[in-house]
Specification:
The chain is mostly beta strands. It folds into 2 domains: 15-118, Immunoglobulins (Immunoglobulin-like); 126-201, Immunoglobulin-like. It is built from 2 helices and 15 strands. A hairpin with a 4-residue loop joins strand 6 (96-104) and strand 7. The longest helix has 13 residues, at 2-14. It starts with a helix and ends with a strand. Residues 1-22 have low confidence and may be disordered.
Length: 203
Amino acid sequence: MMRRLLILITLLFYGFPSSAQLQGDSVFVYFAGQQTSDGILLAFTVKGGVTCQGVKIMHSTDLQNFEEVYEFQGVCGNPTFDESYVWTHDSPENNSINYYRIEVSSLGITSKTLSVLYIGYNTDGFNIFPNPCKGSCTLYFSNSNNEIHNYEVFDTMGKLILKGETRENSIPIKAEKFTPGVFSITVSRNNSPRFTGSFMVIR
């Protein structure tokens, strides 16, 4: 009896847990984003047992000024199970890091900030970023089916400098030992050239 009384006094003194005391990590068990052909796909999961009213997706390009880009209206979360949500930002900042966070005003919480690099492809379906290349840069291209692609890098004299293959949608170019100048890169699929691009190496 005395122990129950002490527990009750403690709760009355310190207060029962409230939604305002919840932290982002205790509400969102998953928050991730990736570039797709339609923009940046964002996915997050609200922990089971947490319910809320309205979820806002906030976006920034400088980590300072965030603005609302979408709102999931109505009741969110589930009193029993984890509840997942997805949404695609179809107008992210090109060739830049895009920052996102989730705000739930009904709970008074904000998620961790998520950063996603978005590379806009040119008309040939690729981009080299950054360009000029200082130390290293990356060639990004569409490869949704993870097909094998071969690549070759040449200098202005036609000398082969680098070659390799990948199933990814990006090719890292480590140019620390390259002589400053202009280089070309050819990417092929099934022994047939797919596209050719160029980049400049500076010191």
